[in-house]
Amino acid sequence: MSTPLPFAIKLAVLLLIVSEHSIAYMVPTYLAYMMEGFITKDHNPDNLDSEISYHAATLEGLHRLMSFFGCFIWGIGRQQSLILVLIGITVSSIGFGLAWNFEVAVFWRCVAGICGGTVPITKAMVRDISDDSNIAILYSYFGTGHGFAAVLGPLLGGVLAHPYRIWPTIFDTQFFHDFPYFLPQLAHALVTLIALVIIIIYVPNKKATKIDKTPTTMLFKNFDYMIIITIFGFVALVQFGFRMLLSLWIKLDQDKKGLGWESETNVGYVNSLAGIILIFFPLYFTPYLTKVFGVKKTCMLVITAMIPISIAMPLYYFSSGILLWFLLAISIGLFISLTTVFTSVISIAVSNSVSTELVGRAMGICQGYVALFRSIANAGVGVLFGLIVDWNFSYPFNVDFIFYLCALVLGISVILMKYYITPRIEKRQKDDDGLSEKNQPLLTKK
What we know:
It is found in: Membrane. The chain has helices at about 5-40, 50-70, 80-95, 100-115, 120-130, 135-160, 170, 175-180, 180-200, 215-220, 225-250, 265-310, 320-350, 360-390, 400-420. By secondary structure, the chain is mainly alpha-helical.
């Protein structure tokens, strides 16, 4: 029987995840269209698609790179860190909506990246307030929050971008023509402010009871921990590379094997429909799968299930109308849901692989490491997409190749998970030094 969790804690976790992930789903909805607006006047129409890819890669690649650095600068306590992070996200979101050119947009996305430390802080907080009986339940709220964000973010981005198109009597002013993405960014800022209020009210400022003298270097001698974050990084490559790929592929002209959608609105609707799956799937399947199969097998199952989705996606080019909408919504929803379950369960593995004294630093280093992979994914997929479009490669080295590459990385991750992760990650460690006798140093592991 699981230990009951206070409603306020569940609400705090939910709002934190919604505030961070809704922007992550909102921006890709109109990213390609936003880049087109910034660069159309300065580039030849013949190579506009590839330039959009390069600029999108630069913007989101730098954003994720700043997230890598941001994960290491929040060490002043749970509540204070969360307050500063949420204030930074709020300001940067409004600033991004007011960007008048590409360079200003890059600046504000970099600020958002530095402030994007909500998840590791929240995960460390979860370890503090949970036990083995309810940690999977609490992590399922990460998935539920992710689901609400996956519905809310694209919906805000698709409907509120260029608001004068839908509500001309209210928004057909020069301001919204000059800043067509201000309204969705403002809406996200308001969501973040709500999360900030919840944190101030419900999350206590826990004071340190003793000075922790456990050296951080113990983490790098922990074989399980190092393998886990490596696999986490590989899946993050696919997770965020897939997201960047979709945002570019959906807009790409049909004669170049893209879907050729001309408006952010339809993109937002489809992604919001996909997000409905994400609301319910992780909530039920995260605790159920971990209870039935355990941490290791659950990770292997969900990674394996992502492979056929990645392979099948390029075939949707041959469909249209309601069938295309249905296939996209189901596939995107399942893919994101599976990655969300994986992220929750692999985070339990990270937490279980180290001692209590090291869990905060373990989460921070893990999140920074994964953020680096996310930066590589966004930049790499954007550049590769642009090169493929520029050079007009034929099948299988057209844009379909990137989908197949994602499936290959997932396959490698399953193999690593099966043969290199030990059963120790199934339960949290009780030792004080973060390195029990069964968890031999990485360099001496046979």
